[in-house]
Amino acid sequence: MPIAMDQAQLTKVYLTDLERNLTFFGIVNTLNEVNNNMEVHLTDVKVYEYESSNYLYSLPDVTFTRPKAILHIEAA
Q1: Can you list the alpha helix ranges (DSSP code H) found in the chain?
Q2: How many Å apart are CA 73 and CA 66, to the nearest integer?
Q3: Digit-coded pLDDT (tens) for 11-69
Q4: Cα separation of 48 and 23, whole Å?
Q5: Which strand (E) or helix (H) includes residue 23?
Q6: Which of 40, 21, 22 is nearest to 30 (CA)?
Q7: Hey, is 52 helix, strand or coil?
Q8: φ and ψ at 6, to 5 degrees?
Q9: If we measure between CA atoms, which residue out of 67, 54, 62 comes closest to residue 17?
């Protein structure tokens, strides 16, 4: 069964993809957990290299599905 995160509970987040060494900072549009995967749609996104915290680029929005074991998410 999918689990949806209430947008009111967690609006701005840091979402780190440990496998790709990237951290995404943005506003949660949708965040669902399905079959050990996280389906994420963020808006107003800034992307950083995880290890150095160096700013890389911005995106108006990004959507991806990744295994939840390699993602770390925290409220900003």
Answers
A1: none
A2: 12
A3: 899 999 999 999 999 999 998 998 999 999 999 999 999 999 999 999 999 999 999 99
A4: 5
A5: strand 22-34
A6: 40
A7: coil
A8: -65, 125
A9: 67
Query: What is the distance of C-alpha 57 from the center of its chain?
Result: 15
Here the tokens at position 34 are 């399905």
24 neighbors 14 (Cβ within 8 angstroms)? yes
- Token representation of residue 42: 């963020």
Residues 6+ apart with CB under 8 A from 32: 2, 3, 4, 5, 38, 39
pTM of the model: 0.84
The two structure tokens encoding residue 28? 């949660």
Q: Read off the tokens for 22.
A: 């990237």
Helix (H, G, I), strand (E, B) or coil at 35: coil
